[in-house]
Amino acid sequence: MKNKILVTGGAGYIGSHTCIALHEAGYGIVVYDNLSNSSREAINRVSMLIGQPIDFIEGDIRDAELLKKVFNAHHFYGVIHFAGLKAVGESVSKPLMYYNNNVNGTITLLEVMDEHNIKNLIFSSSATVYGDPEILPIDEKSPRSCTNPYGQSKLAVEYILEDIAVSDENWNLICLRYFNPVGAHPSGRIGEDPNDIPNNLMPYISQVAVGKLEKLSIFGHDYPTVDGTGVRDFIHVTDLAQGHVAALNYLKQQTDLQKFSSDRTNAIQKKSVGFLPINLGTGKGTSVLELVNTFSKETGKKIAYQFIDRRAGDIASCYGSADKAKTLLGWHAELSIADMCRDTWRWQSMNPDGYNAKN
Ligand code: NAD
Ligand code: UD1
User: N or C: which end of the chain has fewer CB within 10 A?
Assistant: First the structure.
């Protein structure tokens, strides 16, 4: 029987790509999403791409009663938990909304999981928990600190997961810290669909390319970097999706071992995964200007830009060590910056208005 996974936030940008990768890897999926930052059309497109209907429940992770019904109706192996709000600026003006959604929502989910004795979880954390890193590339032992409510909500969930892992050795909790996800599915059918003017770099560039925005403002060109612009670890969303499959395969392997050892109590010491943080990045930094230039080269679109002041809260450079993911999960990112630009452009040019377009 296929292992069934509950995917919270599975209609969103990273979740929708991961649903396809999970299906291709032979996992069953049930998507649970309140569509606060996504649409049914994303679910329809994923169904089309995998060639079968998706088991989709429109619901909120803070709705314990609905979650219980879902856990009673299915036998899940575990949960991949993407559901959350992610706009840093909005989190500064609406901190309660962010803590309520991201922290309370996760607590409700964990309580229902605990009640149903489902203790395998993969959580979407972020490189933002490393704050302004002292040492690059950033490894998983680097100190954590955050300055905005979005980041604090991720950090708070990390602490909660650490505490429950200590309280009960049956929890297996992988915390994936993503660097900067960009790109889209190679079909051009699913991708990132920001609600308003994008805050993040790649969707901004692609909206300039398609003519929806006039020009990119580059925030600062006096950073101590290769060309003065900010440096980030951009990772293709389909590589990221494969990282989730690798993490799930690892969890499965570990929980199978645990089961085997508890069946033969004297043979091997039972050992849970506990709380396991893992970076998902490429290990390489790319500057804002390098990304802009690669996008132009790969798509033939000139991107108009101007330099303006630094954005408050931004750091000069951020890229992660990808060694732990490689050693433990056997996973590494394969796609290049050129692939990320081409695939972003395919999605943007085929869907200039995102999922709202009638196509
Ligand atoms: P997204 O907004 O596209 O997807 C999140 C999904 O969760 C959306 O479909 C939204 O409708 C749903 N959701 C939000 N609150 C919910 C709730 N209370 N109940 C049910 N569903 C809810 O974002 P994404 O880029 O796919 O990010 C997925 C996860 O990864 C988030 O937790 C985000 O914080 C984290 N993350 C994202 C990035 C990034 O740059 N995209 C980087 C690091 C971490
Ligand atoms: C942002 C979030 C971070 C989140 C990460 C991944 C902020 C302050 N931080 O990080 O919490 O984990 O996304 O989704 O929002 N840039 C421009 N012009 C633009 C947009 C961006 O020059 O219009 C520059 C930025 O200054 C930065 C780089 O591009 O140097 C990347 O920016 P962005 O895509 O917003 O990601 P992060 O700032 O790394």
Answer: N
